[in-house]
User: Fold this.
Amino acid sequence: MMEKIELVAQKRSAAGKKNRLLRSEGKVPGVVYGRGVASEPLELEAKVIERVYRHAGGNKIVALKVGEGRARNVLIHDVQYGRAHGELTHVDFYVVRMDEVLKAEVPLHFTGESNAVYQDEGTLIKNLEMVEVECLPGDLPESLEVNISVLDDFEKTITLADLTVPEGVKLVEEDLEVIIAKVEPPRTDAELEELDEVVEGGVPEGAQEENPIVVAEENEGDKDRRDKK
Assistant:
């Protein structure tokens, strides 16, 4: 069973440009909604929701209580950030039913060491960082482990089929041959020399290296008059 995090919010009356004033007071606007649930605008203490989001992400159940109302099980469905300072500016909560299957993205947690990386100087390539799963809210895993120690040469790969998925959890992606991670061999001397030639080769033949310098007619006239002196 997943850990449940508690969060208290208040009903929000501010909307549109008035949300700027709300943010200036150290609060974050939000909204809670769900299937068969009327959308409700909220306001939350910025420091509190930022701490909760760091801990819960988008795949931990949050017990959200609005004012003196009854706590509801929600997932943080979407967040928006400010461009200037990167702070949370809006949060969406989605109400979930504990007896109803849902879909959610779960992060992949990479563990172990790959000999192909540490001994053979290869480069670990992660094609996926998240996977979408389908399960009951109470079965939603915090993460799925990917042990890269099996990548002991450049021929091996880790695919979705190699994931160990908890009971009651199903991968949404049906193609289990999708590659999660692999190790690429280091570049050969010939490949490195070819890259150097591309970088140092300069401008290809026929290309203009830089804009031509145009001398104004009046400057040319001044030069002619100086030459006659």
About this structure: Residues 212-229 have pLDDT under 50 and may be disordered. The first helix runs from residue 18 to 24.
